[in-house]
Amino acid sequence: MRANRSLFLGLFCALATAILVHGQSQTGYISIDCGKPLNEIDKDSVSGIYYAFDDDFIANGENLNVSEEYNYPKNLNLPYVLADLRAFPQGNRNCYSLKPSKAKDKLYLIRASFMYGNYDGGVNQKPLPEFDLYLNVNFWSTVKFKNASEQVHKEILTYAESETIYVCLVNKGKGTPFISGLELRPVNSSIYGTEFGRNVSLLLYQRWDTGYLNGTGRYQTDVYDRIWSPYTPVSWNSTRTSSYLDVFQSGYRPPDEVIKTAASPKNIDDPLEMFWTSEDPNARFYAYLYFAELEKLERGESRKIKIMWNGSPVSESPVVPSSMYSMTFSNSRAFTGKDHWISVQKAADSTLPPILNAIEIFTAQSLDEFSTAVEDVHAIENIKATYKVKKVWSGDPCSPRLYPWEGIGCSYGNPNHRIKSLNLSSSGLQGPIVLAFRDLSLLESLDLSNNDLQQNVPEFLADLKHLKILNLKGNHFTGFIPKSLMKKFKDGILALSADDQNICKSRSCQDKKKNNMVVPIAVATSVIVLLVVLVIIWIILRQRKRASRVSKEFQVEAELLLTVHHRNLASFVGYCDDERSIALIYEYMANGNLQEYLSSENAGDLSWEKRLHIAIDSAQG
């Protein structure tokens, strides 16, 4: 009776636990069936997981399906999320934005799934696609395929550095990137520890369900939704229990279906051995081994396990599995090198052979790349949202360095990268220039030309202390260029380009225009004055030359008059010739010359006798 009661309580606890786990398992999950049509059912009938559409996580890409030969109903075992995909023919880098609640500093398992499935009909015409996967700003892995039906899963454990986690697909010129499924699972932050703490991410190398007995590999009782691959070599035995087994005291929480089976060597004295070779001799490996005693040991029996790596003990003390209780063992220092050999051996004083329920192997990947400063990210995201920028802008603006956002230039430093140039020319921007531009405090070059920007050119652009180039041409501004910007322009600090109607309506611009006219006016005036002076000099010289010629002619005539003598002519005394005047000098005539005498008012009438006498004398010369 007491035994039946215990059995009933055990079954009740197991059932209650299963219901509780199933109810809580999807808390905090983000599950995306990439490329799924909007009218399809969003629940996977096998895993019970609800999947979301892409559109809430990424704006770019095309939704497509794998070809019929790889899809339902010809492929009945095809996982739910692999039947369709989202491809990214545009842009070098396309990123999904995952925003779990209060994500920063929490540990997450992130899994990306891929199956080519000849979705583009190119399986026999071109090489299979190959592209890179990035987590935030750091390289994650390269995605490539052996054949069109291969299912590729990339999984990583990482701490969130901010409230948003970016998963990015990068086109490296070897085919169009695509993705079939993307999943995020919250993980207990106290597990999967390494000597490097949070400075590394853990990339899944292998996750084996040792002692596997006809399982599915993915279980609703696994709160972390891990995928367990079977691994039972022919030299191993498999053991299973149906009894209740406590997995809740361990933060690793392996699913019942995995921990209730175990592998042991067929030969009691043989070890359980696992081998692998790393392509990178500097890779750092961490192994997490799961143990649970599935048998009720008799008096005098013991199971003590020694764990070795490449012939050296990993721990000084042997591992003793607890009865019906899950425990996890891991190496405190990384396994490094090219060839790796883990051996789970029977300790010298153990009466029973070694067992192993499961094992996970990860490689540590350093988080070496820096991200863009938060204030710059917020500013550029604000600009993107305000103007609905139609560019492939996703993920970090500056990193990875080879793939910054289109139109953005960055300065790369420690601890953060900064945006130093922004080219939004001909980008369809409408409305006023928003305040977010001022938050790009280290901006050196800003090109907003050929858009539909309106209202006034804002004064706050002058607050960008490092701005050297500003192009505002081809917009519809109604206000004036601010004096502060024009001053920087006049001082040679800023290279400013704007439409004439904006610059020339500004008082500062008018002053500058007047100042600019001084030089040509002065030059023109000088030329005119010089011409006038030259003309005057020419006239003076000409007059002098002419006067000299007249003076010589006068002198000749005057000297000729000196030789003339007549009783009816006044005596010629001499002549005067200076620079101002010329004159002839005669003897004094009391009655004046003939003209004066004849025209005088006092002169009387001439008699006919005098007139005749004058005529005769004139005729005689």
Automatic annotation (TrEMBL):
Q: Which UniProt keywords apply?
A: Leucine-rich repeat, Membrane, Receptor, Repeat, Signal, Transmembrane, Transmembrane helix
* Top EC class of this enzyme: transferase
Task: Name the residues that span the membrane.
Answer: 517-541
Task: Tell me if Thylakoid is a UniProt keyword of this record.
Answer: no
GO MF, one annotated term:
ATP binding
Write down the chemical reaction(s) this protein catalyses. Answer: L-seryl-[protein] + ATP = O-phospho-L-seryl-[protein] + ADP + H(+); L-threonyl-[protein] + ATP = O-phospho-L-threonyl-[protein] + ADP + H(+)
Q: Which residues form a coiled coil?
A: none
* Protein name from the UniProt record: non-specific serine/threonine protein kinase
